[in-house]
Amino acid sequence: MVQTICCIGAGYVGGPSMAVMADRCPGLDITVVDLDQQRIAAWNNLGRGSLPVYEPGLEAVLSRVAGRNLRFSTDVAGAIRKADMVFLSVNTPTKRNGHGAGQAADLTYIEKAARQVADEARGSTIVVERSTLPVRTADVLHRIFANAPGARFEVLSNPEFMAEGTAISDLECPDRVLLGGNCESSLDDLQSIYAQWVSPERIIRTNLWSSELAKLTANAFLAQRISSINSIAAVCEQTGADVDQVRQAIGSDSRLGHHFLKPGPGFGGSCFRKDLLNLIYLADHYGLTPVADYWRSVVEMNDWAQQRLARMIVRQLFGTLRDKTIAILGFAFKADTNDTRESPAIAICTELLREGAHLAIHDPCVSEQAVQQALAERQAGSPQAGAGQGSFQVQHRIEAVFDDADAVVLLTDWAEYGELDWSRLAPRMRRPGWVFDTRRGTDLAAARACGLETWAIGSGEQF
């Protein structure tokens, strides 16, 4: 019977998922560990507004379990030694160098975590893959654990399916919990934990390889839907159709459903692009070139969606952005999260900076440091780095981004952007002034009534 759990990795997966598990399983003793002292300190500063992950409902859950049966610590070795079960929730970014660079997953952190588990674990330990991993990563773990002295290991796969912004509700009321493994008794132990709050029909058991592949495939299918609706949004703009009406019609089809059919500036976040590239690499590895090309086109469609929005903004502003101020509303890849990883805002802002624009950026949850780091990394890795004379400034007051702005670009669908008082904000802008709504998330009729030109993604109506 599992009583003590160690989770290695205190990021977007480890922190929230272990908080919910501790809340629903008061009999478990859970420790989340990480070598990043600053991150652990932030988790331990509950109530001071400094949590490293912004998720609606997370603070309420932590207030019930922190210090009771959930702890955050930098003592990785000590937590492993005490644990009956170890969850691996470390980052698996795309490789930047060497074989497979740009597509394959970098397993450096998984390997380091596994080696430390092999060195420190005592007795019989169940190791659970929680990170999104390439298929057959469990083979790597088995080989590492085979050389561990005085300990026995069983490897299971339990990928997370939570979406940022709704992570707590996704964890508390999951569509499904996927458990993969080849040892029935270990699977029973893991299932007994989830069974304390998840109904049996929502718990799916598979072999290890099916579980690992299912996570990649789920993200690939979701990314494909976003790219598909964005391609149709572009057709709508040229033909006079309206993408909201189109998606309502096709979303009513029970074979398709309405989820992930909302157009926008492209998909972002920590998973979709990385997992698509991983799947492409896997298909290429096995010589499945048409399969690789098919999924590669989804990535290319996403890149095109971002590039076309940047080009369209330049075109509407008379072909040049020099000496012009563009107000950017939203920098996170979606609402209700502070995550900027692969955010469409990064690519679009970078293109506007290359055109010489001055960007005034606002996001209710993304820090100034995160914006600076994301844009600096993107520009440093660009073959056109240094082009243009653009600059940017992060504004904490939303009114400030409108001052002398030539255009406003809505990039993240935060609820507060849908409640903008255009009668108060529009007079702060220069004329002619534009509003570009890439999320269909603000009142463009009110903006037009204030004398602004408007554009909405997927709308064929010429305002």
SSE diagram, text form:
Blueprint: E1 4-8, H1 14-24, E2 29-33, H2 37-43, H3 58-65, E3 70-73, H4 76-82, E4 85-88, H5 108-120, E5 123-129, H6 137-145, E6 151-157, H7 167-172, E7 177-180, H8 184-194, E8 203-206, H9 208-239, H10 243-251, H11 272-285, H12 289-316, E9 325-329, H13 344-354, E10 358-362, H14 368-380, E11 391-394, E12 407-410, H15 422-425, E13 434-437, H16 444-449, E14 453-456
Parallel strand pairs: 1-2, 1-4, 2-3, 4-5, 5-6, 7-8, 9-10, 9-12, 10-11, 12-13, 13-14
Helix pairs in contact: 1-3, 5-6, 9-11, 9-12, 11-12, 12-13, 13-14
What does this structure look like?
The chain has 463 residues and is of the alpha/beta class. Helix content is 41%, strand content 14%. It has 16 helices and 14 strands. It has helices at 14-24, 37-43, 58-65, 76-82, 108-120, 137-145, 167-172, 184-194, 208-239, 243-251, 272-285, 289-316, 344-354, 368-380, 422-425, 444-449, and strands spanning 4-8, 29-33, 70-73, 85-88, 123-129, 151-157, 177-180, 203-206, 325-329, 358-362, 391-394, 407-410, 434-437, 453-456.
